[in-house]
Amino acid sequence: MTTKIEVRDFNFFYGEAKVLHGIEFDIPEKQVTALIGPSGCGKSTFLRSINRMNDIIAGARAEGRIAIDGKDLYAPGIDVVSLRRRIGMVFQKSNPFPKSIFENIAYGLRIGGVKDRRVLDETVERSLKRAALWDEVKDRLGRSALALSGGQQQRLCIARALAVDPDVLLMDEPASALDPIATQKIEELVYELKDNYTIVIVTHNMQQAARVSDRTAFFMLGKLVEYNETRTIFMNPGQKLTEDYITGRFG
Asked: 73-78, long-range: CB within 8 Å, 24+ apart, which pairs?
């Protein structure tokens, strides 16, 4: 099992408030790692630390190390824009641009300087196929993305993240706003995508974590309580706190 993301003694602060405390674990390549824990436990803050999305918050700062393929993401001189291109992000609420379906996918490529129409066409088709959306939208690529259903919009956002060919895909509760059928499609998609991508997913839904992930990290009050294979976390947790959370005694 190859390590893709290495986290060592990682701390995070919003101003004076310390919200992550000494986080340390290894995330394997081409697997799905779920981050679980009650609201406000730091899992989304940690997720956004992987692609440095938190940098835009005034007073936010990080200490410690997060490395991808051995390269420290917080080292001086890191190009954050190209870093975010390698690390795709899908948010809780789908956020398609008010443009056509085609332009939503092509947008990142155009910013990167791609002008060749054939390359754009091929990438849009490939990304929509990977996001299991192509068959539903191939005849209306010129129409507004905002006309799609909620579940389709979320898969479009996944396709948009995949278009720039990232190594890692971060998902912050990607199905929490969706109905059960759309949620199932997103879960099936996550399961398929791990053949090509390392995926880290934040979820409040225990069953979802159990269904889609290979490994699970349980966060509580900004600390990593337990990290193991998902099967072990759910069937035989090593910490009473983990067991109490999973069985619904709190949280």
From this structure: none
Domain boundaries of the chain, sorted by first residue = 3-246
Question: What is the rounded distance in angstroms from the CA atom of residue 83 to the CA atom of residue 189?
Answer: 24
Residues of the chain with pLDDT under 70: 251
Instruction: Check: CB of residue 221 under 8 Å from CB of residue 196.
Output: no
Bridge partners (DSSP) listed for residue 226: 218
Per CATH, domain 3-246 is 3.20.20.70:
no
Which of 217, 214, 212 is CA-nearest to residue 246? Answer: 217
Give the model's pLDDT for residue 251: 57
Q: What is residue 81's predicted lDDT score, i.e. its pLDDT?
A: 87
pLDDT at position 167: 93
Among left, alpha and beta (phi > 0; psi -120 to 50; other), residue 113 is left
Given a contact cutoff of 8 angstroms between Cβ atoms, the answer to whether 206 and 237 are in contact is no
Query: In what helix (H) or strand (E) does residue 121 lie, and over which residues does it extend?
Result: helix 117-130
pLDDT digits (tens, 9 = 90+) for 153-185: 999 999 999 999 999 999 999 999 899 999 999
Nearest alpha-carbon partner for 20 in 3, 36, 6, 40: 40
Question: Is 229 exposed, middle or buried (CB count within 10 Å of its CB: 0-12, 13-18, 19+)?
Answer: middle
